[in-house]
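Example with several molecule types.
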Amino acid sequence: MSLPGRPPGEQIPLVDAARSAKGAPWIVNAALVSLRRDLLLAARRRSEVLTALFFFVVVVSLFPLAIGPEPALLRRIGPGALWVAALLATLLGLPRLFAADHADGTLEQMALSPQPFALQMAGKVAAHWLLCGLPLVLLAPLLGLQFGLDGDAQGVLMLSLLIGTPLLSLIGAIGAALTLGVRGGGVLLSLLVLPLYIPALVFGAGSVEAEAAGLGVRGHLSVLGAMLALAVFFAPWATTAAVRVALE
Amino acid sequence: MNPSAKAPWPCESLAAAGTRRSELTRIKRFRAPRQNDAVCHARRTPPSMFTATDLACSRGERRLFDRLNFTLGSGEWLHVKGENGCGKTTLLRTLIGLAPPDNGAIRWRGADIREHAEDYRRAFVYLGHQPGLKEDLTPLENLRLSLALDGFACNAATLLAALRRMGLQGREDLPVRHLSAGQKRRVLLARLLLRPAQLWLLDEPLNALDASAVALLGMLITDHLSAGGMAVLTSHQPLPLAPGREVVL
Amino acid sequence: MTMKPLNTFHFASPATFYPLAGRLQPLFALLALALAAAGLYVGFFVAPTDAQQGEGYRIIFVHVPTSWMAMFLYCVMAFWAAVGLVFNTRLASMMASAIAPTGAMFALLSLLTGSLWGKPMWGTWWVWDARLTSTLILLFLYLGFLALQAAVDDPRRADKAGAILALVGVVNVPIIYFSVKWWNTLHQGASVSITKSSSMAQTMLLAMLLMALAFWMYSIAVALARVRNIILEREAHTEWVQHAMA
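Resulting structure tokens for the full complex:
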């Protein structure tokens, strides 16, 4: 269309209703755009990402301080303590998932986009995992040393966290969407989400304990993987429904 | 194409929707202009592309509006008027599909917007009260992202040209945080320019705009309408446009 | 409310359901009393003394039915919440909100009676057995639902948000139960099960069933009473309520 104040001949070329600029298939385009967007935003606010990591480190250090430095005891509680700390650190980052976008109106615009909203939400959750969950996975072995976990246990711990933290992000996103803009949101979010986290905790921490006890870990990790698969398919839909309810 | 001065008799869409009302009531409704009916001119309108039938909405316990009907064709715009808190924003949010109405249907090209949501969403752009911009990103990045989220690709030259036309020359690479409120609205106007849409729904678009920006917006909307587009606007202030249809809440 | 040809939605309007609930409620209350009396009689006087646990085991006639009811009511609540979400009716969501406090109460009661049983039997007030732990988690789910509904101001949004939470919860309840069972068997130290019973005499089973039915009738009666209150609160601006209250 011609612009005001310019001779009629001069036009601004309209945008092309093109497929993604990078040629990715249409179906995941929405998720990729959303993912890149959140990563870009996090890059502009690096301190927020780092505080969640520091929280993880601090909480892990609280357990030996509370229970005592006896090595055998620490080796027993190590996996559980690390898993609980990972849970709490993920919980800390959840309100930030939607709150900022909701406050400045961009979440609304995403809901009005012709692209599938569920995919956009999936992209956001993926970004949350990359920023909150993956660093925990990478940091866990270091903290596992504080508890005297041996190599095999460390490996299983990392693997269980690798499968478990996306699960935590997915379930947590539902809670974050439900408490969007609600009074007392952060604490309410914890109350809603922690009971739903318990299966992940049981199987995640249980896998490392099974490893320490010499039992097979495949059962635990398989169940964890199954829960993750279930969550990957159903959690974005629940999150989308909850966000739409919050936007009404 | 633009509606001429209002003629003093109800139009066909009112007749079609309000068959249960008697002729007398219709005339009575006109005499009391603060009713919920669309007052439009009697000239035969083109096949309607955007219609609302029997819309009703409440917020909590309060009924905001009831039996609201209007029709918009190519090149027409609707001015939603009313006092503060009477439901203008709620009406707009109902029209875009975010808030489900208590009753009634909204149709885009004959199809209910709930059933053909994707087509409808591709066809409109909405600017609400909230800025809709990320403060940490530059206007250029904001535009590119919001177009990408809507599924459109755009090259940098086009984005820059649009920003320049909106008077943001030299500020394209500044985080939006550093822009004034008026400049932030200008970024949104640039988005209006770039995003291909047949229907524009703008809630208080003149907020925070200075006189030149108001004139710019007026020209944008006029161009949009003359190219066959439609618009639904709420505004307290007088809009720099030829009069359109009106709905008073 | 649109009237479907079959009139299946006739009672979906709060205005028509209100008097119906008022008429049904005393009926269910009486049934509850009768069944409770029967159940308690059978439980206390007819059922034989347990070989291992003596007379103290009789609290099982309250403990087990309450945990059944807590689980059952969560599913019922999730069902009504789903109906409210899918059909966009107010009354179904009101029903779900009415059931929630009763369900939470049963979960709490189950934990308390479990505690009371545990102390004389096993010497501790709390045992981490599978049933008690899953009932604890179920109580958390109920509390989350109640807290969410209380925190959201707009009633329709509270209905829908609660419905989503209830549905997510109901999908998770079997997962949680399974995980807790696994966790319990893994950690042999606390595997003493409070509800592991050798063999149930017929009369014991009968008493438990009677009590379960009694609690069910009670829940219906209380839910009906509560939903009447919720209807009055939420529909306070309508004519029929103002007429009824006048």
